[in-house]
Design brief:
This protein is 32% helix and 27% strand. It is an alpha+beta fold. It folds into two domains: 335 residues, 2-Layer Sandwich (BirA Bifunctional Protein, domain 2), CATH 3.30.930.10; 97 residues, Rossmann fold, CATH 3.40.50.800. Strands 3, 7, 8, 9, 10, 11, 12, 13 and 16 form a nine-stranded mixed sheet that branches. It is globular. The model has no long low-confidence stretch (mean pLDDT 94).
Length: 450
């Protein structure tokens, strides 16, 4: 993409309403624009990253054997009355009436809706296990929306739902989700720690939140520092293997890590003092097992091997897709702007032409641009007739991991400058060598498109 043809409304000044880093940089980098309190338009750069994150989530869910679908954003209140949650959910639910005076609501979550889908089409244990998911806009009418996309009213979320014959099968689905989430977050350059949490309005005795440590986190967390040494890495997991998934769960949850809602001071004090940590955390996902809570109240049962009807065991599993964008910025930035991990960067490399209009510089930049396109890599070419300082500031603000700087002086020596946004280190090399190095870097990261 040529920057002269792109819509990137960057701001030099920080808007007064932005209180945390991610909100400030998302506004300044032209990624979002507030429409009303807690509701945002996603401008091209922000939308591009949102899609990168969404596609990683899709890939890892499908790898785990989960089936994508799509449900409506508007639900009938009747389903929620069946489950008993319509009056219990609270003021966060946006309740509305249609023109026929029927009670409706804007989806905050979809346990009732997916249970209705299931009970309408599945009636035998032979169709189990079954896990379906969607990535869909949700709405919760927060009393005090703040912090940009971190605590908005409208948000983009992956919510998945498993249906199993037994508790043991459902807990395997729980463990399978935990494994897939660990892989998902690491592909985004995040370390998200699974922590024992409270079931809240969704319910359930088994639940873990995934939190990214950050000073601006809304939750206070208590943990054994040993959990921060754990990485999922490139290990291959057979998602059908109960033993492998259980092993990963034990590895990542055997160390103490809890939110303030479930913190146990006595257990925490059993950890060696030098490993006890308290911090703030940003929730980016949560998994639940809640047994037959919804299947019993909504009559979602199947005929078992013994010929008798039995309520299915269920769980729900969410990832905050739009919230993740803010969490990544909170975890990866400096005083110049965002620093995107390679896995989610909107463009793989930036090209800065120091002398737009110079025949040799223009030709070299065009050649680089075409070389990256041929490799399936997206370059953002700053071809504006702007000062070099302004071009560098824009690149630093929007946070592309790599920048290639092209100027007449370097070209006379047959070189361009390749700069790492994370370290600030630069290296001069021939243009074709710069292309090869960028290609090698992304060969180690699965390239995710729009």
């Amino acid at each position: 993409m040529r920057l002269s043809r792109y819509f990137l409304p960057v701001l030099k000044e920080t808007p007064s309403e932005a209180q945390i880093v991610s909100h400030r940089y998302m506004l300044r980098a032209g990624m979002i624009k507030q429409s009303s309190a807690g509701i945002y338009s996603w401008l091209p750069l922000g939308f591009k990253v949102l899609r990168k994150i969404e596609n990683i989530v899709h890939e890892e869910q499908i790898r785990a054997g989960h089936i994508p679908m799509q449900m409506p954003t508007i639900q009938s209140a009747d389903l929620w009355r069946e489950s008993g949650r319509y009056d219990a959910y609270g003021e966060e639910m946006l309740r509305i009436k249609d023109r026929h005076d029927r009670d409706m609501l804007f989806t905050p979550t979809a346990e009732e809706l997916i249970t209705d889908v299931f009970r309408s089409h599945v009636n035998s244990y032979k169709d189990l296990p079954l896990t379906m998911y969607q990535i869909q806009w949700k709405f919760r009418d927060e009393r005090r929306p703040r912090f940009g996309v971190m605590r908005g009213r409208e948000f983009y979320m992956k919510d998945g739902y498993n249906f199993d014959l037994t508790k043991e099968d459902a807990l395997h689905a729980y463990n399978r989700h935990l494994v897939s989430y660990l892989r998902t977050y690491e592909r985004m350059g995040l370390q998200a720690i699974p922590m024992r949490a409270d079931g809240g309005p969704i319910g359930g005795d088994y639940t873990h939140e995934f939190l990214v440590l950050a000073e601006t986190g809304e939750s206070e967390v208590f943990y054994d520092s040993a959990v921060t040494d754990l990485t999922f890495g490139d290990r291959e997991i057979d998602y059908d293997s109960v033993e492998q998934c259980q092993g990963v769960l034990e590895e990542f949850t055997s160390r103490y890590a809890r939110t303030d809602e479930t913190h146990d001071e006595a257990l925490f004090n059993e950890i060696p003092e030098e490993r006890r940590r308290t911090a703030r955390g940003i929730e980016v996902g949560q998994i639940f097992y809640f047994g037959t809570k919804y299947s019993e109240s909504m009559n979602a049962s199947v005929q078992g091997p013994d010929g008798k009807n039995t309520p299915v065991h269920m769980g729900s599993h969410g990832i905050g897709v739009s919230r993740l964008l803010g969490a990544i910025i909170e975890a990866s930035h400096d005083d110049k702007g965002i620093i995107w991990p390679e896995g989610v960067t909107p463009f793989h490399v930036g090209i800065v032409n120091l002398k737009q209009g110079d025949e040799d510089a223009d030709a070299a930049c065009d050649a680089l641009y075409k070389s990256f396109a041929a490799l399936g890599l997206e370059a953002l070419y700053d071809d504006r007739k702007e000062r070099a300082g302004g071009k560098f500031a824009t690149m630093d603000l929007i946070g592309l991991p790599w920048r290639i700087t092209v100027g007449p002086r370097g070209l006379k020596n047959g070189v361009v400058e390749l700069t790492s946004r994370r370290t600030g280190e630069s290296e001069e090399m021939p243009p074709e060598a710069a292309v090869a190095k960028i290609a090698e870097i992304y060969a180690n990261h699965r390239v995710v498109g729009m």
